[in-house]
Amino acid sequence: MTRWSTTKLCIMVAALAGAATVGMAQQPFGVDPSFQLAPTVLDATIRGVVELPDGRLLVSGEMRNSDQTHTTPRVIRLMPSGTRDWSFDWAPGGGYIRSWNDKWYVGGVSRLYADGTWDMGFHLGFSTPQTVSELFHPAMTTGFSVRPDGGLVLFGEHTLTDSARGFLGFHHMVWVDSVGELDTTHIHRKANAALWYMTELPDGKYITAGGGGMYDGHPVGGIIRIHPDGAADTTFQTSSLTWGYPVTYLPLSDGKILAGGSMQFGWGQDTLSLVRLLSDGSIDPDFNNYLDVRNELGAPYTTKGSVLSITPWGADRLIITGSFTHVAGEVRGGIAMLDTAGYLANDHFIGPGCGPATHPVTGELSMSLHGLLPLANDKLLVYGSYTGYDDGFTNHIGQRAITKLYGPTVGIAEHEAVSFSLYPNPATTYVTVELEAMPRNGQLVLRDALGREVLRQRVAGYHNTVPLQGAGKGVYLLELWEEGERRVAQRLVVQ
Known about the structure:
Blueprint: H1 3-7, E1 41-51, E2 57-65, E3 72-78, E4 91-92, E5 97-100, E6 103-106, E7 110-112, E8 144-146, E9 152-162, E10 167-176, E11 195-200, E12 206-210, E13 214-215, E14 218-219, E15 223-226, E16 241-251, E17 257-265, E18 271-277, E19 293-294, E20 306-313, E21 317-323, E22 326-327, E23 330-331, E24 335-339, E25 353-354, E26 357-358, E27 365-366, E28 368-374, E29 380-390, E30 395-405, E31 420-423, E32 430-435, E33 443-447, E34 453-458, E35 463-467, E36 474-482, E37 485-494
Antiparallel strand pairs: 1-2, 2-3, 3-4, 5-6, 6-7, 8-9, 9-10, 11-12, 12-15, 13-14, 16-17, 17-18, 19-22, 20-21, 21-24, 22-23, 25-29, 26-27, 28-29, 29-30, 31-32, 32-35, 33-34, 33-36, 36-37
């Protein structure tokens, strides 16, 4: 049993009790058949999902309705069962979704109200003479970060016409304010080629890929680390990366970084799908950088698979998703569990996983899982482009594009303990913990996704305020302790 499973033994999971279809056994990481994407959404490739406080889902990707001819980058809202919420109209989107106050940025190029209407107060690319336009694949990348004031940091390739300050032509890290106009308080940066797939690191720096070997006047490798003000971090060099498309990153507590995608380090070397980088950008030799990730659907042109997301799971596991049919010689349809050294674990996701989807125009078969989202009710969502999901117990042929899985604690009896509620969730600067009964010598403990203690404070009464200023964005576990023993815990999302 993993440490995550042990930690979660005491979580209250009453919502799981009646979720399964009658006659079907619930299994850890098995499919919850009560959730299925609305049949009116066709040819869907899901690239971003956000869970709303009421359990509904904002879903972004390329999709079409039954009355449309071509797939289009869109955002829709789904009910907790996967049916279409028709009170939310088709909205522009297609890429990653990030929140700001009560609004949503999608792909870095549009901002939506909660009801799905376009916020016309944000007009990226419409300002003159400071025009920001020609974004590099805005619907395909996660190349933007939302600042606290609602402004954005955009990565990609953008054309600037700010002649007054000398920002002309292609720029690759661009700052815009909360209405979408070029931010004149920052220095916009150039590279020799487009930047893509950025991640904001816990210390405020950014990591991205591309650049064509130069960034901000400095020679760089294929993966670039950038200071919060946009200057190149010259202490980080990946000069050994000779080719590749890193698309996802996971920063680790020791300053190392996991990078997933398709990459080659050194001429003539194998194409790698998952590597661990040291704090200076060099390859970590203590990690299994040569994990065999294969995609047999790509044959005969290529059989190399790609890792598209990396999620920490407890203190000793990683979940990867991507475009692959096999990992380390074992069948893994787009999702696999690894240990923290990069080796395949056989305790979960041992079924065939996702099935191939047929391209509506070419008829070619392909399959990919773009990401994984832990939900507030201790379940998971996986999403991407696929048809059918075999969880190792049942082949759910009706599943496609987005699937809900039971969490690892399904079937575990609830621990009798003092219970509590917390709000808001997701939270930003603080969370309120409301107890149903007072524990003896009670303490509240906040842990990150790797099981590390972030905060501990005494229970002061029935209502407790827990500050979150020291916690970065991510998924946490808030535990209630009594007389030195952990009694109950709940998942908390910090935005």
